[in-house]
Records
---
Amino acid sequence: MHYRIGVIKGDGIGPEIVNEAIRVLDKVAEIYQHEFTYTELLMGGCSIDAYGVPLTEETIQACRESDAVLMGSIGGNTTTSPWYQLPPELRPEAGLLKLRKSLNLFANLRPCVLYPELRGACTLREEISRNGFDMLIMRELTGGLYFGERKTEPVDGVMTAVDTLRYNENEIRRIAVKAFEVAMKRKKKVTSVDKANVLDSSRLWRKIVTETAKDYPEVTLEHALVDSTAMQIVKNPAQFDVMVTENMFGDILSDEAAMVTGSLGMLPSASLNETKFGLYEPSGGSAPDIAGKNIANPIAAILSAAMLLRYSLDLQTEADAVEKAVQKVLQENYRTADIMSENCQQVSCSEMGSLIAERI
Ligand code: IPM
Ligand code: MN
């Protein structure tokens, strides 16, 4: 089969990790006889440098014409990069937010798995990490604080900034449905995370999630407050299966959960709408401090490519093959610097990509 894949390498370590994901996809194409055509697109800082804006209409259109988009990461050092001297709507992150909104990618799936081989890299004590964990954060991605009205202006002579956290019931219901649907294919437990002891938006969230749960009697629903959840993730991560939460809570909790798996460099993500189309990107950032050194961990990008095969192209066998190849390389004790531990062999970003591709 022939598939069109948009490729946004982006900034920082983005290009180097995406190159490795493409190396793996090319191997998949060769072994399973598919044809992937890649269209390289600019977004983020590199688009600012080329066109003066972080996202062009042409890039959005090209994404629409693709079966799926594979992305690296965008943005730079927020204190030193000239991109952050620009007005907020022209900065790299604004491009990503606009792309998510334009393509209606409201559901962001962030699987956090502690591989048995990486227990040593887990930041938690052995008695916690030995239980392992496998959770999926379902982050709402096109509403909430990141998309509400915002402004900074003097009020009675005092400079004042406002951000708005807004959700309507339809936005909550559609992400809740996604969470229950995926829970049905997993351990049938949903933890809905909110701040219902303070926020109106959270009280509506809780009400709608509870209503939605009635259609999924086999799934156990639990409500939890976001502050307490942050604590539980480091205390007992094995208790979670699917966690569904609003945009900002999900942004924060997914970095925390990712780190608990050993490294942000291990975590893929899929951003989906109501169609088969998806945008696939590592959960971590552009890591400008290590960019261009060939030491970044490409596994999150490679696992994002596996999610792309699974969710947008319906190629389950191929997705399994990529995930198994990653596991194999870890079993053989190859590690990039971020997950390095005793008695392992440290390899570069490109070596890791080749090792994984060879095992497909
Ligand atoms: C992420 C990133 C983005 C977000 C930034 C770059 C806008 O942190 O994908 O988690 O906050 O969603
Ligand atoms: Mn984030």
---
Amino acid sequence: MEPTRAAWVAADAYLADTLVGHDGALEAALEAQRAAGMPEIEVAPVAGKLLDLLVRASGARRVLEIGTLGGYSTIWLARAVGEDGHVVTVEAEAGNAAVARASIDAAGVGERVEIRIGRAVDVLPTLVGGFDLVFIDADKESNTIYLDWAARLGRSGTLVVLDNIGREGEIVRDDADDPKVVGTRDALRMLGEDPRFDATALQTVGVKGWDGIAIALVV
Ligand code: DHB
Ligand code: MG
């Protein structure tokens, strides 16, 4: 196979079909998001399943998500924390939060999910800490602020997952002027240098293009 975008997408779809399968509530959440005119920038199905496995493998019960969008990843996280678990998810746009609320409730995990509406820089200082896992998937320009809050609201052993660290390979550009690339590079440098984190990152290709995720442990 030639490593074309079409081949990545086909292979990713095959993996999702084989390992994730169909899921009515998640597919309905994506349909609601599309119908509301929101961007289709939620995590890929295989990445949603990765979030689920990271939550369950780490035994996380209190999860913080920064960037709710339509609630697709929120549903994955809320299912994974189990009946006694709790997800706090922060969303800047009230319209997005309303769509997410309906989809999360329809998925049957509404009682586990608290949506905090507001800019994350304003909401994060109001949260009580002790989160076991933090998923950062919001405006890339503020990634270092979110990483700082993840460390402050976490504890030794908290897992931090940062989406979109590949950005179609643009992360290698030290002369980047795209603020999303600059924010991503700043976040990666912080994960490498800040003694509060031990981190790695994996590039991904698939239905969401060429991108990646970083995974860090708060030490
Ligand atoms: C963008 C944001 C995301 O969280 C994502 O997964 C893909 C793209 C963006 O803002 O471009
Ligand atoms: Mg993302």
---
Amino acid sequence: MSSIQHLFDKNQEWSEQIKKDNPDFFKSLSEQQSPDYLWIGCSDSRVPANTLLGLLPGEVFVHRNIANLVIHTDLNCLSVLQYAVEVLKVKHIIVCGHYGCGGVRASLDDNSHGLIDNWLRHIEDVQRFHQDKLDAVPDMNERADLLSELNVQEQVANVAKTTILSNAWANNQDVTVHGFIYNLKDGILKDLEVSRNEK
Ligand code: CO
């Protein structure tokens, strides 16, 4: 079995560094969290929400799954969304996709990937909604990147259509849903300008 001791060593170092800058950091954070942001992103290890936003623990509530999908029957994602909106009262919900997404790319080929194909079916639905736009892009990598953007746009709409957001907006709660895309090649986030703050 390979050692995982380095994880504990790194953790010790990280905790010491934070306490050096702010001795009360963990104590005050352990009493309460009040993040302004909910991040719904891809599970890809190269797209870590806190790190790329430069945010500390306590600043962003996070849900991640393969290809950042928001499915109306996914109790996991919906529970996160409900808690973020109704209890934490986040101001911004960010759906973030990324270029070079393996899940999005896999949805474009005809190969069998096992169980995950059932999950990727949801991206195939997005493809069907935008078939003409996608067919117009012959290069498969570029097509996958366009599909990553269109997928974010659809997932923003899915968040906006939940009863959670429609209730929040009916009660004049200040919460906006945004769609971002992240570029693995330069670490830069782009706003897809599909934000919604009302029904
Ligand atoms: Co991905």
